Amino acid sequence: MRDLAQSLEFYVGLIGFSVAYRRPEEGFAFLELGAAQLMLDTTGMGRSVGDAPQHLGGGINFQLEVADFDGIVARLDAAGWPLVLGPEERWYQTLDGERGQRQLWVRDPDGYLLRPFQPI
């Protein structure tokens, strides 16, 4: 991640995560949303985990089950945040049969693809 403030605005302000704790001197924040946990770590601050690629995100796709899908849609819309796809209703074949969900696809400030969904 390149800009902690911008990422916090996206993940906390638009998606609905809460900040469990922060280490500002390291450019770090630990976020929670339901059972999901996310660590934001600013490139070039704190401990090094290797060289950061020029383009973060790549083809990674994070699926995130949420309780307030409509709230996320409304906040993204109000912020004018561009969606990659959706919102939509999709049904997928799984080992336990067919499973439906409301979902959308959105990129975070560093290009990571996030797919918030709510089961139907």
Helices and strands in order:
Elements: H1 4-15, E1 18-23, E2 28-33, E3 36-41, E4 61-65, H2 69-79, E5 83-94, E6 97-107, E7 113-119
Parallel strand pairs: 4-7
Antiparallel strand pairs: 1-2, 2-3, 5-6, 6-7
Question: Your description of this structure?
Answer:
- The chain is an alpha+beta fold and 120 residues long.
- The protein has one domain (4-45, 57-119): Roll (2,3-Dihydroxybiphenyl 1,2-Dioxygenase, domain 1).
- 19% of the residues lie in helices and 44% in strands.
- The protein contains 2 helices and 7 strands.
- It has a 4-stranded mixed sheet, with helices on one face.
- A hairpin with a 4-residue loop joins strand 1 (18-23) and strand 2 (28-33).
- The chain is globular and about 45 Å long.
- The model has no long low-confidence stretch (mean pLDDT 88).
| Average pLDDT reading | 88
What would CATH call the homologous superfamily?
Answer: 2,3-Dihydroxybiphenyl 1,2-Dioxygenase, domain 1
Number of domains: 1
Per CATH, the architecture is Roll
Radius of gyration: 15 Å
Number of strands: 7
**Kindly, what is the distance between the CA atoms of the first and last residues, rounded to a whole number of angstroms?**
33 Å
What's the story with the biggest beta sheet? 4 strands, mixed
Q: Describe the strand arrangement of the main beta sheet, using strand numbers.
A: 4-7-6-5
Number of helices: 2
Question: What is the chain-wise order of helices and strands?
Answer: HEEEEHEEE
Global geometry: globular
- Unreliable residue stretches: none
Portion in helices? 10-25%
Structural class label: alpha+beta
Strand content: 35-45%
CATH class assignment: Alpha Beta
CATH topology descriptor = 2,3-Dihydroxybiphenyl 1,2-Dioxygenase, domain 1
